[in-house]
Design goal:
14% strand, 353 residues, 5-stranded mixed β-sheet, single chain, 2 domains, Lysozyme-like, alpha+beta
Length: 353
């Protein structure tokens, strides 16, 4: 592998927030994901004008192959950097889990073999064992990715700069700072949330809904959060306080959904969902799953069918709902959360460093 160019490093920096958030959700060091992107497309430098490579079969930054992932490619969201990296990292984790179940590989060996599988597939890697890279292009895929990852690790040294949402005391924080709070006067008693309900405001801008959601009047309408088109998030009530967002409603045989749900309003009419708003939905919902025993996330139309239509058929559920079934880190991959430490360990073993 040649030395990374300044252009690659700058492009990596521009994707730092996206890569860091995806890596956190899937429990991979962000520099490993960046190393794969560098190997696959040099952060987009190697792609043609249509965003493709590999004679037209590879799509986007992580070169998702249309011959193996036709359903994802057909959606067209592969062009979006966040979606492409999210999907590619999920595939990487699937390969890791498959190899863990079908081989005796563990620790650094398992991680390196999973990386090789991103190029050769787990079947090809298993056939090539114990030299998993023998099945890959150039016979050096995982070692090359890890060298690149080591070189890119300094980009991710300041991980606190990524957009990380966290719930503390039923209030939402972003990067350690509480999001803007505008108290709604319309609320009930305390609740234990187990459901998230997604809405849209049916307005084109933030000012109007932020005003009527925080103004005392006869409508008695409120929500816990409102997310603007640019991804800015405002909190209107603590998450353990009942908001009046669902009205007459039912979920799984239970009425009065307001009594056990968190309501999230999104500025817009439901026709177009800007990337920043989608990413904020995804990251906020992930934080809520971490903080509470959330059973499901649904649209307003699902709990009030026939009466409500929001968030509408264009709401990007496949992009938003990337919440793992287990919110606790997988102990079988605990070594990976050490970040660059695991890279150094693998490099020492397989590259003689």
């Amino acid at each position: 592998m040649g030395r990374l160019t300044e252009q690659e490093i700058e492009l990596c920096k521009s994707l730092k927030r996206i890569i860091s958030n995806v890596a956190r959700r899937h429990d991979w060091p962000p520099e490993v994901i960046a190393g794969i992107i560098s190997r696959e497309s040099k952060f987009g430098i190697l792609l043609d004008s249509n965003g493709k490579g590999d004679r037209g079969h590879g799509h986007g930054l992580m070169q998702i192959d249309d011959r193996s992932h036709a359903a994802f490619i057909s959606k067209g969201t592969w062009r979006n950097a966040a979606d492409n990296i999210e999907y590619g990292t999920a595939v990487l984790s699937d390969f890791h889990n498959y190899l863990e179940s079908h081989t005796s590989l563990k620790g650094a060996d398992l991680e390196a073999a999973a990386i090789a599988s991103f190029n050769a597939g787990p079947g090809g890697v298993i056939k090539a064992l114990p030299n998993w890279d023998a099945a890959t292009t150039g016979k050096d895929y995982s070692s090359d990715v890890l060298v690149r990852a080591a070189a890119l690790a300094p980009v991710f040294a300041g991980v606190d700069t990524m957009d990380t949402f966290k719930v503390v005391g039923h209030l939402l924080y972003k990067n350690g700072k509480q999001v803007p709070f505008r108290l709604s006067p319309d609320h009930g008693g305390f609740i234990t949330p187990t459901l998230i309900v997604i809405h849209y405001t049916d307005t084109s801008e933030l000012k109007s809904p932020l005003s009527w959601l925080t103004k005392k009047d006869d409508t008695e309408v409120s929500a816990h959060l409102i997310i603007d088109k640019n991804g800015e998030v405002y909190q209107l009530l603590p998450f353990n306080v009942r908001a009046y967002h669902a009205g007459v409603s039912e979920y799984d045989g239970r009425g009065s959904v307001n009594g056990f749900s968190i309501g999230i309003e999104n500025v817009g009419t439901g026709d177009v969902w800007p990337d920043a708003q989608v990413e904020a939905n995804r990251d906020v919902i992930s934080a809520l799953y971490d903080a509470y025993e959330i059973e499901d996330t649904v649209g307003h139309s699902s709990v009030s069918p026939g009466r409500k239509v929001d968030p509408g058929p264009n709401y990007p559920w496949d992009r938003v709902m990337t919440i793992p079934t287990e919110t606790q880190p997988d102990p079988t991959k605990s070594a990976m959360v050490a970040g660059v430490g695991v890279i150094i360990a693998i490099l020492r073993k397989w590259l003689g460093a």
